[in-house]
Amino acid sequence: MATMQDSSLLLREILSRRIPPAARSWLERVERLTGTGARLGGGSGAPVSEASTWFERDRFLATFTAAVRALGKAPLGLHAEERDALEAAGVARAVDGRGVDELGRVLMLAQVSRRLPAPELELLLRVCYEQGDGRERQALLRALPFLVEAERFVPLAVEACRTNELPILEAIACENPYPAAYFPDLNFNQMVLKAMFMGVALARIVGLDRRRSSELARMAEDFASERRAAGRSIPADIGLLSLDHERERATRIPE
Known about the structure:
0% strand
């Protein structure tokens, strides 16, 4: 996932083309608060190893919340060259179709993850998630694959999968490479079943092909049996979770 985590400069360039002049001060404030400034995209970007003295969490949270007022909710509307650059970086599905405010919040979290010590970053994300509104939570979940040492945030992502709010579930389960990259099998399988139960198209789950398993196929068949017994419809795309014998053998035979 290093490609995603090193893409802050690309995200900033796309964002900077879309923000109105009045919002430039918001972006400058973000760079001061995240300790990046002119170094964005340069240097090691490694987080400091001791408690920070420069970080102002309350101001960061206020600026995070203010993104929607400063940037607006309009879809990014990527240009062809921007989409090509995102494709090359492996992040196109994670960015395409998002609102400008969401990209701004993703950028904030990606930048600060390079400078903030791990305990402070984990606390910051927890506070952002617990205190944020739905749109802020969605941005945080979509930011996870862009963060340094992103595997640390699996518990938060798994917790988000328990939601009954469809937009929150979609933020972690759909067009998001994080679950396929980091979730243990049980949590990934449960997320897929929850998404199917809530009517999410399985084709939107990134990495489903490589995370498909006999256990997931069994869980899907149990789900289908329960639906049949209750006289309920079965999702038309449930077949995406089945394993044919040829594919199953191919996973066991080295090339």
